[in-house]
Amino acid sequence: MTTRLLGIVALPVFLALASCRGLFFWAAETAILTAVIVSATAPPPPQVVLIPPPREGFAWQPGYWTLQDGQWAWVNGYWLEGRPGYGWTPAHWEQVQDGSWQLVPGHWDASPPPPPPGAPPPPPPQ
Prior knowledge:
Radius of gyration: 23 Å
Distance between the termini: 76 Å
Shape: globular
Strand order of the largest sheet: 1-8-7
Number of domains: 2
Number of strands: 9
Number of helices: 1
Helix content: 25-40%
Largest sheet: 3 strands, antiparallel
């Protein structure tokens, strides 16, 4: 009876601890992905690359500069699978009030995506 009771109590405790371990790794991953990248100097100008034609159901993240170990490193552009009802705001650098530069990560906004380059403007609302 005591062994069975111990097994009944041990299983939920084990599962709770195992799920906390997963939660810890998820939180650590999230913390790494949301790190702020700041530079005292402006990033180099973007590299000249061929921009691929639009793909239905995908958003384009243009290439951009990032800092790795204090050195500028180019991140190539890539396609992201679209999310219905959301528009992609690409990663980009912004100068902040103290004069330094901050990399703003790309993110999905609950708004329509911007028109592709060279597309005619949308018709006015009626």
